[in-house]
Hints:
The chain has 179 residues and is an alpha+beta fold. Helix content is 49%, strand content 19%. It has a domain of 109 residues.
Amino acid sequence: MLICISLNTYGQKDTLITGDKTILPTNISTLHSPHKATMYSALVPGLGQIYNKKYWKLPVIYGLAGIFIYTFDYNNNQYNKFTNGYLDMKSGKIDSFEGYSNVETITKIRDNFKRNRDLNVITLAAVYLLNVLDATVDAHLMDYDISDDLSLNLQPSLINSFDNQQAIGFTLSFNFNKN
């Protein structure tokens, strides 16, 4: 199942007036496209992170995927093995399986492996979706301004309540300085 998320991004359209009064249209859009990062990551997990130049995330993505694929395979093999053992015990071919002689115990163990297998499919899908989401968010934040002109200020203050009593509190202020 392939889920593709389509995002439209638009750049600012502007005009540039040159010295000889010629008006040239310019497109002030970012060269880094969140749409491309999303599509790359949706088609091949990790390709959006490569596009965003966040190479350190690749081992995390493929490591998690490998763990969940391995545990899916293990739980599926155990589920099939206990299903065959259950069927053999029900038909009377064997008296015990893997040290268990009670059919109900084998059924509970088999159902536990099935539940774990199904949960591995869900977590693998979650890793895939988080991979796509991470590439999208990372691409959107590539041009985010993190300069020193942005500041956060937290100060203690006295606050007047509605009944003219004073309370001690904090004032949180954001300063966006443009030079």
